[in-house]
Design brief:
Structural class: alpha/beta
Strand order of the largest sheet: 2-3-4-6-5
Distance between the termini: 61 Å
CATH superfamily of one domain: Nucleic acid-binding proteins
Length: 128
């Protein structure tokens, strides 16, 4: 006695297609997110030994950037007197400029309160 192959209904095909589309969309959205915890400038400066020589994600406001320069300051969102010097030698994202809220991913050096940036993300994430 032979088993008859099971037919897949049109409804089942639609459900599988929707699930695949949702997985793809979620994957694309998560791809651009910054991994790990994001710190404020004040958090990094108050724990410099902890972050020294390590990769850090830090959020703040851009100040002192002149269009062709690779250097600028990232100041704390709440304490504008606190800042970290940033060097970014890669391509800057569109809409980058002074007074923008950004997340910098890079290596922090406590001796001169400096980050060598590897990535800049413009905008404030909904949760960090």
């Amino acid at each position: 006695m032979e088993k008859k192959p099971r037919k897949i209904s049109e409804k089942q095909i639609k459900i599988v297609a929707v699930v695949i589309i949702v997985v793809i969309v979620v994957s694309i959205l998560l791809w651009g997110m910054v991994p790990g915890k994001t710190y404020d400038v004040s958090e990094v400066l108050s724990n410099q030994e902890k972050f020294n020589g390590k990769e850090v994600n830090i959020i703040g406001i851009v100040e002192g950037w002149e269009g062709s320069s690779n250097n600028f300051s990232l100041v704390d969102s709440f304490y504008s007197s606190l800042g970290i010097n940033i060097t970014h030698t890669r391509v800057f994202p569109e809409n980058f400029g002074n007074n923008e809220t950004v997340i910098i991913t890079g290596i922090f050096f406590s001796d001169n309160k400096h980050i060598e940036s590897q990535k800049i993300q413009i905008g404030c994430p909904s949760k960090y």
